[in-house]
Fold this protein.
Amino acid sequence: MKIQGVFCFILWYMQNYSFVFFLGCFLWLFNLQSQDSTSVTLNEDPKYLEDQFYAGLAYNVLLDKPRGVIQRNLSYGIQLGYIKDIPINRKRNFGFGLGIGYGTNSYYSNIIAENTQPNISYRLAVEADSLNRTKFETHAIEFPFELRWRTSNEVDYKFWRIYGGVKAAYIFSRKSKFISENTDNNLSFQNNDISQWQYGLTLNFGYNTWNVHLYYSLNPLLENGASLDNGVIEIQPLRIGVIFYIL
């Protein structure tokens, strides 16, 4: 029971304080990555590894939105994790990466989800709702797999990189929230229409500290026939942001 309590506390903390926690991690990682690499000596082990810890910030674009759906506020994504670097050539500038990490994403729009048991219904916000914000929110364990190419060597930590691959994510918390200017109408509940397994294509590329991160989802955000005005909601997220790597 004690182990269960600790696990539940960790999940609660990740869901409620993830933004502040990861913002602090970003500042720390950015400081490490920005340090001058001149301190590296030629006596290092030639069997070096690269880019095994990562953190990223992204903006979530909603593709294939039904008619009348608009994005509101800042739909953000945060990721942090470890990826094992597996070079496969002698120069160690080409190989694979296999990892595990944590990601949280929020998708703000004018779609209101209502828990009308036994199903969940969806509608567009109207003026009478006094809408402040409404969103879908997910917390996930992520499993990235990358094909990696870079121009690094054992003494130069400033290099070009192109990492392409796929990412699967197991969603352990999936919520719908509606915040009204009238606080008596606020809603928050676990939304099982949000796909529990999500997967997509990834591309990370750049030089030294600053790297572009792209993710295109291959399955819709909502499943189980979720519909709006008798049309199936087939929204697919596209993430555009930055990613930072350190050893």
